[in-house]
Amino acid sequence: MAASAVGPVSGAQAKSQMQLTAQMILAMRAAQFDQTIDFGPFEDVCPGASFCPVPARPVKHLPNVDLAIIELDAQGHAISAANVLLSRDYPGGFPVPIDRVAGPAGTYGASLVRWRRWDIDRYNGGTFSQEDGHQLTTKGWTNNPPLTSADDIVPGRSPTPVQFMSPYPASLFKLIVAFRIMRLVDVGQLTLDTPYTYNPVAAQLAAEAARSDQPLQDHGPPARERLAVAAPSAAPGETRAIRDWMDPMITYSDNYAARALLKLLHDRNDLGAMHAELRDMGLATLQINGTNPVTGGNWQPGSIHMTALDTARLLWLIDGGQGTLWLRPDGQPVLASMLSDPSRAYLKSLLGDYGFHEALDTSSLCDKANVRPGIPALVPARWINPDGTETAGGYPYGQDVRPCNATAEVTFAHKTGLTFNYGSDAGIVRSMPGRPQRHYVIAFLSSLGYRYTDPAFASRTTYPCYDAVGAICYTQRIPGMAKQLDDFLRSSN
Prior knowledge:
The protein is an alpha+beta fold and 493 residues long.
């Protein structure tokens, strides 16, 4: 069933797809992720501790990178689709075979990949002392102990020779929550004006945030995403309309709002139905497991999963299109009408208002030193101050974004995720009027959180992501790669 082409396509389209795959591999190689500087493996220890090397050194191992692009025509049909993996198993980049079936549409899945749960100790090679840096335990990449079926994200794929340990998506998983809420709106179980009272037990919230084995693991850098127990407007028993939880969760990645909506899904005993629907759609790697039904928190690597191609297809559905988008595992069509037009428009408006443009595009850090341009995207007017600087969700970027907005070529309706170990970005790229034409969905997930940086910062004694204003939280190899791909997609039309 699996092959390296997407459905029956014309010769021109097949060539375009092969070119897209080749360009993604070239861009990934050109990024030279093996030269990324690593301040890890301890959060809030290196840089600065006496045993931390100065300058910090490049990564010992290639990061895991999962990148997918679906190029779309004016009607929202896929012209080409590609998925490329990078890891120590695939140092040159691995082109994932895209599923196809006979007929006018493909499944656009990646069933040949055995997706594995993320294990940070496997990546680091064990655990280490935060007092003096010495190694406490040893763990092998895939063989110490050997991976088993318990490490599978999607069961039943053991015969495949291709395996990949999928990075934690960080706050990108809020996209799944938003999609599910709008599905419940469409079937009449909720409305955007439905009031919901978030009333977790305060002691449990505090205990969860203070767990010694989870230092900010589900929060991201303190300056960027508020801790639930410290959120200025966070008071147990607070009541808001659904839309007033949704907006902050998506537009500036507010964790308190995300916990509230996850608790709402728990209250409705809905997560099982959500996962069943995603599996039925062929999006089985999109999973939110192990969260706390009392607080909506406890977001753990190895329990919450997303892969780039499934994320890209979910965004494709949100973007919309005529007729069949892709085929479910049972052969039935997935249609844009699975979401109502108002629900798709609402989700796209939230993603279009997202304020953190600093990963695949760097418009929020316009012309800042040591920042590379990425996808030439527009910063939403909502966050721009009278002096041209951007303040998104209370976070000041400090750069005048007007020069980059003046030369922007696309809108980028997207969502990022960022923690110490993980960085992600995924969204819908559309040309602005009068600009060179392109329309595509891109999804990037990686083990490149803010512990990873660039040589310019190797001698720093604090993370560049901890700067109070204009922090640089992602290695600039990410936007550099994205710009190379956007240039290709622009010139290929």
